[in-house]
């Protein structure tokens, strides 16, 4: 059960908004896409020879007088560090920010062995005093207000501290200097280890890393093995991307390259902690490309609702679930993996192009194999969706019961207790009177005999087949008007829901059943971005067959097809006169981030209404549907929907257009539940309604 | 003004540093003396590699620190940057001694001398110099510091605050001439 703190949600939303603006400004004049491609390729090359570069780093670091130690796991890393401290009689260790030290539980271990470990990064110090854990990798105390910080400081100092930020900063400066000057050892992390000269590269904004590594007699660098880079030129590339992507700064205030030890002793502890196993796994190896910039967290819709205290084990968010699975154990990663919406937003911003969403799906598969499948998912995916006749029977029964369970406006009546999760915060649609396949046959009886531009297959997907046939009919109308003979694809599940929940064998079965009916060499037009993602991306990966690849190459989202193949003719279908409609557009996650088709939809809508769309704020923020996510995590889904409804109503539009029937279910259901008069339409419906009426047109 | 210098100044200012230009080192040091007097700063820590530029006067006391803690008494630090990076407004120092790093970091005000001809377009232009310095085995502590603006944090309510650990003020003294 997740709890949503409205104050924290507000802080995180504002932070994300400001972060994106600063980040955009900092990358001005640079090509982020080519920079991150270069960095991802560099990291891949280096990871492939990680052992070689680590040895080179060790040799060079030793030549400068550092002692280099290797730790295979957390226990060994803690023991090695404790032995160093014991040897030098250290009673107090001061630390600059190090996620690896959080990972190994160093502070707790040292405390249990009589050594005080004191954080010196302001955010880390605050959470340490509050006896909490960091909730963000770059901004550890992002969840706390200045008032709470003042209370924490007052309690620590035993005197009243003002809650004005400059006063809090002054207190921190004075107190942390006392800590640093009274410590016998300092510990820093490393953002990179440079093999060619044995230097550790450290980025900080506060300057505590410089003090911690210089003032105490002993300096320890604690770093994980994937941080090694061959040359300083490689660090230049990292420096171009990391601060910009992390905080929107061209460079952090301080970057230190520490090769030789200072006047005292210097130790470098290199931690493996199952990273060698990740390196050996061809599927998951890319998670070690992560440079811990936290950009993925800053745009994650779930992180923005929950924050890091709930969406973390030690590492946070989607990438955190992947690292946790290997470093802290599969069981610890389960809840995190469940929290991913699969929106792909993080992948757009990831500094090293890690396929976070896809890897989480692969992780769910492993979780199902090792820890067992959740009972209710077994019923859904092994029991119902895997057996099409049973699923059809359920829909048929629902259709028979329709007059009793459906209200006047087409929404289902309030559901009984067992089904409460479906409509707790939004109205659920009643099943359509007739499935789309039947309506299509009735509305387009002569399609088979048409003289046409060619034929194509319309694959509508389950929601359109059973709940929203009008979308399928609208798309058919537009395509027919362009002269295409529209053939209906099978009314079967594409396999996405099973794949997304880690039931890949069921997904393969579903896809194979479907593809058996899609043999002809024709374009396949989709009206649901999730189905398109399955057909274009997931199926070729799952089946690794030529047949799946061939099918994928023929799949086009409806709006992308119209812009790519019919750009010249499509505008002739609409009046050039602007209409009175005030339309805004919601970017469905897969449509924007995976299919890259949102701008095509916008162009088509603008073409059809003869004027600009009224853009809403955060049009690409997830609406919270995400398939079964809205049932398994209704609190988060509801919070995301509320944000979306505020954006929509604030836009001044009367119609919201979108391209995903799932988003349509969520937003239309939300509008109905909240008594909001906004009309929700699929792009295909807008286009069909704006077609110029011609004689004989359907 | 060559673009590279303007870019450096613009980006240094964008990072919250202040920049003042001088025709020579002598003029810059005269300014430092006046500035310290005006600000009523009496104790100044001078990085070992900047000592050649300034002498103690009746009004200015140059610290002669025996340990790091002595630097805590300094109200300002005078340091020398070896290079400037225009792309980010960054000061580059090739560290050889701990005292240099401490003089850059501990005092609340950092006054940094930088020769105009030492400004390069971007960090890549310095790669071989940085790499060469970090590979030195003839000095005890080869390190490199890149400093861009004063010490900063946004750890409380994401509000930018300066001076939490290092200097809250960074004044770059940009000098046209060559150091003696």
Summarize the structure in words:
The complex is a heterodimer of chains A (698) and B (180). Chain A is 53% helix and 11% strand. Chain A is α/β, with parallel strands linked by helices and 698 residues long. In chain A, the strands form four sheets. In chain A, strands 1-10-7-4-2-3 form a six-stranded parallel beta sheet. In chain A, β16 (655-658), α34 and β17 form a beta-alpha-beta unit. Chain A is elongated, with a radius of gyration of 28 Å. Chain B has 180 residues and is an alpha/beta fold. Chain B has helices at residues 3-14, 25-38, 98-105, 127-134; strands spanning 18-22, 43-46, 61-62, 76-80, 83-85, 90-95, 109-115, 119-120, 143-147, 152-153, 161-162, 169-175. A six-stranded parallel beta sheet of chain B has the order 1-12-7-4-2-3. A four-stranded mixed beta sheet of chain B has the order 8-5-6-9. In chain B, strands 10-11 form a two-stranded antiparallel ribbon. The mean pLDDT of chain B is 92. The interface between A and B is large, with 63 and 53 residues.
Q: Main interface pair?
A: A-B, 63 and 53 residues
For the largest beta-sheet of chain A, the strand count, sense and barrel status come to:
6 strands, parallel
CATH topology category name of chain B: Rossmann fold
Number of strands of chain A: 17
Give me the count of strands of chain B: 12
Strand order of the largest sheet of chain A: 1-10-7-4-2-3
Shape assignment of chain A: elongated
Brief overview, please?
The complex is a heterodimer of chains A (698) and B (180). Chain A has 698 residues and is an alpha/beta fold.
Secondary structure: elements and pairs:
The complex is a heterodimer of chains A (698) and B (180).
Chain A: H1 6-26, H2 32-48, H3 50-63, E1 67-71, H4 74-87, E2 92-95, H5 99-104, H6 106-112, E3 116-119, H7 122-129, H8 146-157, H9 165-181, E4 185-188, E5 192-194, E6 199-204, H10 208-212, E7 218-224, E8 228-229, H11 232-247, E9 254-258, E10 265-271, H12 275-280, H13 295-299, H14 301-306, H15 317-327, H16 330-338, H17 345-349, H18 356-371, H19 375-385, H20 388-405, H21 420-423, H22 436-443, E11 454-459, H23 462-466, H24 469-481, E12 484-488, H25 496-500, H26 504-515, E13 524-526, H27 529-543, H28 546-554, E14 555-557, H29 558-570, E15 583-585, H30 589-594, H31 598-609, H32 629-632, H33 634-650, E16 655-658, H34 661-673, E17 679-682, H35 683-689
Parallel strand pairs in A: 1-10, 2-3, 2-4, 4-7, 5-8, 7-10, 11-12, 11-13, 13-14, 15-16, 16-17
Antiparallel strand pairs in A: 5-6, 6-9
Chain B: H1 3-14, E1 18-22, H2 25-38, E2 43-46, E3 61-62, E4 76-80, E5 83-85, E6 90-95, H3 98-105, E7 109-115, E8 119-120, H4 127-134, E9 143-147, E10 152-153, E11 161-162, E12 169-175
Parallel strand pairs in B: 1-12, 2-3, 2-4, 4-7, 5-8, 7-12
Antiparallel strand pairs in B: 5-6, 6-9, 10-11
